[in-house]
Amino acid sequence: MIKKMCLLLVVLVGAFSFGCSDGGSSGVVSTPVEEPPQESFDVTSPVRIAMTPTGQLVVTEANDGRALFLDSTTLDVTGSIASSKRLTAVGATSDKIFLGLETAGAVGVYSYGGELLYSLGSGVGEFELPNDLVLDEANDRVYVVDTRAKRVKVYNLSDGNFLWSFGQNKMNFPTGIAFDQSSDTLLISDFGVGTEGCGSLCFDPDSFYAGIWRYGLDGGYVETLTGDFSRPQGLAVDDDGVIFLVDSLLGQILVYQKNPGAAGYTEIYRYGGSDILLQLPLDIVLDPANKNLYVTNNLAGTVEVFLAGGTLP
Amino acid sequence: MSRYLIKKQDVLISILLAGALLLPSSQAYALLEAHVLVDGCSTCHTLHASPGGALFAVSSDPTLVCLSCHGPGGSSLLKADIHALKDGNIICNECHNSHNNGNGIDSEVVRENIDGTYNIKLVGLTEDYNSDPPATMVNQVREEFASGVLGVPKDVVYNSATDYDRADGKGLCNACHTSIHNTGQTCSDCHAHAGGFAGSGDCRACHDGSGIGAELISIHSPHSTNTIYNSTGVTFTCENCHTDHELGTVQIPNNTAVDIDYSTSGHDGISLGNNGGVYGSANYNAAGLTEAEICWDCHDRIDVLVSEWETNTDTNGGSFPNYDFGTLSPSNWVGTWNGTTGTTAVWSSANFSFKQGNIQSTHSVNDVDGVSGKDIVADLRCSYCHDVHDTFGPNTGSGPFLRGNWVGNPYREDGAPRNDSPSSLPGDVADYSAYNVAAKFGAVPRGGATYDALGGYFIDQNSGNPTDDVLMDSADEFAGLCVLCHAIGDTDGLWDATEIDAINEFGTPEDDWVGDNNGHAVVVKGGSGANAANLFTMSKRFPTTTWSAYTGDGSHGGNPVMAYQNAYVYNSKRSSWDRVWGQGLRGTDSTAFQYSPPVNTAGRGFNFDLGYDWGATVVIQGSGTMTDSGTDSSFHQFTCSKCHNPHASRLPRLLITNCLDTNHNTWDDSYVTPASDSNGGGDSLSPENQSVSLSQVTAAQNCHRLADPNYSQAGPQGTAAPADGGENGGWNRVSPWVEF
Asked: Cβ of B235 under 8 Å from any chain A Cβ?
């Protein structure tokens, strides 16, 4: 089931309708025309989400082994790519879909028609847990978070060749990754101890349990962001560097803005909780065209849309 | 429903756990090592207002705490999802102790299970979170029903991954599930915890074409959601026919010969049948106690019947007629067709009223049936031939979804020429009157190969030679399905002559064939032709005299052999055989016997022999001698379906034709030769031709003729006479040739 939910950010009141494109009110549900059911796949256990250059959503399914294409306006499933593996990470260019195959320890590169074009690195077994990825087409790179290997691995986007990795001496259980276009840097969510002798102090002296790493595109460490979050997952960043972080345990989207003229970040808003019940949300994508936020609400088996949620209050 | 209130009472749970943390050291919780390595207690709990966030505090759902690591996107490789039930879910801490295995290590509280061992994976509880307040348990899991009702706590022993379903009933799954299947195996191999134990999601999770042994089946496959809908307007799912865990009323056992083999998945076969629900409703579940009944339950209901009776799906490419397999009454075979209960079902021909009778043989396709005849309904294995989801074999996408090539009978229905008036079916009156009485053999049902009206036999020569057609000119094309089981010693999935020669499911050739040899070799297209019998020896055909040329100078009728093939006289001066007048029994010339129906032979001295066009060799003309013919190897080139019904028949061995059972002839009852007679030439009617109907005379073109006991003086066909140790003709000994 795809829950089509529209949230009018300004008043923080959820307005539900069966078509979110115009934010209109609920319509009359007509009796469906009796016709043979078509082979279709519902969102049941969404994990990661990405947006194609044409504005289509791509969602990976953990249990169904499929990546689903969703119309970003109606959230209807318009197509799928089949796999026999549990899927995690996803990314899209104009002609390729990058999929993390959790149970194969691989990232496969597919055509939109579902044909496997090539795999990153050595293919199966290249990763311990390819959890998230981000594409940098300008520099022909793919950054893949390997949670269990406690690092980010970098590959050529065009041919999948391995380039280098970073974070292995710092990261605990890196999970989500996003590209901050405002500073040409990468943001990687992380939590836990993981690294021997490092513990929670890896994040900062106040023993924060979870944090966000900022790294340069070349793998150089930049800074650490901490806050009151527990299980940080996917991230999205707007053109101004505002960070939208999914916390799967809190069931919330935390919005962080860099303090103007000072170090550190301020949490300026949270989505989820009283407005929309997020149960194990895992990833988020920001539509740059209309500032809608799309969130995979895993346990509920839905993709939620926060209409214009990317517009700061 | 207090259990759900308890589950969601995060406040209460938090208080309880917070309290637990404050317990004296003897009751303090140790942690599973893997959890310690994340961040110790802080992995889940908020300690001392740690800035790490609200971990397992008021707003935290305990299930989410687990899933935030063990769920999708989480850091753990031990993936898990909640166990979904109909009316609620089983959450993590209803099976798992959150802290340790209780093996006493690192000051843990010792928690032995009922066997005195220690469970792994945090399985087994010491507190029952389904009661309020939590009750004490001893490494147990409370039984829960899909309805939401709670059962009693069950002892659980879980020492390894094979302890989900234990033979002693102490497995983790056994807390709620009775021992179901694959006891002692790792249930999570198919029912992954990551998928909430949901059986790999659904049937298609395995049947996606990528698994071993599990073929691709989609909702577009035959007998699947969309295709059934298109036929019936009813939407069914896999579960309407199939049952998981082999709990259905029926199991189709694995059979590697037909590519049903789920042994590697721990399945003994295909499970189906729930025997319940209302047909056409969403809760309909494959009613029927047997596989066949489940099939029939739908196929006998829908508006356009899909039946093994009447005219089946075109399987010969459309250039040949499609055989009408008649009807069965009552159409529902359940408990009736084999006469075990209720009314015995009666089969009726579509073309001949006289062909009606109880089912005598069935094709169970099941090795458990070691004798021929009627099989019990429960033994019928429709699926061994019909690949209902079209996963194996030709994959035509349309019925009858067979596991191999098969061509239905491309010959019309054989039947005794009758004169039943008033007629009700097309073959009740043999249309011999339509034949040209001036033709060579005049008005008889099978005077020549062009004679193909109902009432008589249909063989290659008057059926367009079906097996010359490119679509069915090899056994692999017309019986590729049969090779799966009937080709003895086959290794390549293709028929060869040796295999065809040896086809014999029941009995022995010596007992069952008139020629004492396996007749398949000489009648099935592709057979070697070995051991063909000569049906036309004088000793068999006309035993009272020796082989000879037509007697006399040709001016009289004489006593002919079949089709007057001895109507010659040897001209010693020219050392050649000359045709003689063959006025014979029915000729109109004064030298003939002039019996009815007449044949106008005036002015046509070579009437008969030139008219014979069936092709079989009857005599061999030597230098002044006329001897028995040689054998005609592979004269017949039949498909299997020419003689056998693949489902059931009123005749034994699934035979559908008695071919030349002249007992049932009635067309010639009024045409009986006199007890004694002579023709204009002075020749007397031979004893074999005295007081017999035309189908029994020596000239009749009925090669495998079974001697009609009403005319005992007539010679049999194809075998020595009973007086000579033979029998009354025919071609096999299993059909009930005499049915009067």
From this structure: yes
- Contacts with B74 from chain A: Cβ below 8 Å: 231, 248
**B278-320 pLDDT tens trace:** 666 556 666 677 888 888 878 877 666 788 888 888 888 778 9
| Cα separations in angstroms, B378 against A274, B345, B366, B483 | 59, 17, 10, 24
Place of tokens 């040899």: B517
Going by their DSSP bridges, the two strands A106-110 and A116-119 should be labelled as antiparallel
User: In what helix (H) or strand (E) does residue A155 lie, and over which residues does it extend?
Assistant: strand A151-156
Q: Does B232 touch chain A (CB under 8 A)?
A: no
Find, among B134, B133, B114, the residue nearest to B123 by Cα.
B114
Residue bearing the bigger pLDDT, B78 or B15: B78
What token pair was written down for A248? 């799967």
Average pLDDT over residues B472-499: 94
Q: Is pLDDT above 90 for A131?
A: yes
Yes or no: say if B67 and A280 are a contact pair by the CB < 8 Å rule: yes
CA pair distance B706, B738, nearest whole angstrom: 9
Joined together, the tokens standing for residue B610 give 């030139």
- Taking the alpha carbons at both ends of chain A, their separation in whole angstroms is 30
Whether residue A273 has pLDDT greater than 80: no
Q: How far apart are alpha carbons B712 and B550 in whole angstroms? A: 24
CB of B64 within 8 Å of any CB in chain A? yes
Do residue B53 and residue A209 have CB atoms under 8 angstroms apart?
Answer: yes
Whole-angstrom distance, CA of residue A215 vs CA of residue A171:
12
B657 three-state secondary structure: coil
Q: How many CA atoms lie within 13 A of B535 on its CB side?
A: 22
In which order are the strands placed within the sheet that holds B346-348? B327-329, B346-348, B356-358
**Bridge partner residues of B309 (DSSP):** none
pTM of the model: 0.62
Pairing of strands B576-579, B269-272: unpaired
- Distance, in Å, from the CA atom of A288 to the CA atom of A178, rounded to the nearest integer, reads 14
CA B202 – CA A61 distance, rounded (Å): 14
Q: Report the C-alpha gap between B678 and B674 in whole angstroms.
A: 10
ipTM, two decimals: 0.82
Distance (Å) from the C-alpha of residue A285 to the closest C-alpha of chain B?
15
What's the order of all strands across the beta sheet hosting B135-144?
B125-128, B135-144, B150-155
The residue of B48, B64, B210 whose CB has the most chain A CBs within 10 angstroms, and thus the best one to mutate to test that interface, is B64
Would you state the structure tokens that stand for residue B600, as one six-digit string? 């106008």
Out of B81, B208, B229, name the one closest to residue A36 (CB).
B229
The conformational region for residue B3 under phi > 0 = left, psi -120 to 50 = alpha, else beta, is alpha
Q: What is the pLDDT of residues A194-244, one digit of tens each?
A: 455 454 445 554 566 788 999 999 999 998 888 888 889 999 999 999 999
pLDDT at B50 over 80: no
Query: A31: buried, middle or exposed (CB in 10 Å: 19+, 13-18, 0-12)?
Result: exposed
Virtual torsion, Cα B363, B368, B372, B376, nearest 10 deg: -60
Closest Cα in chain B, distance from residue A238 (Å): 23
Q: Is the pLDDT of residue B618 over 80?
A: no
Dihedral angle at the C-alpha atoms of B129, B131, B137, B142, nearest 10 degrees? -80
Helix, strand, coil in percent for chain A, rounding step 5: 5, 45, 50
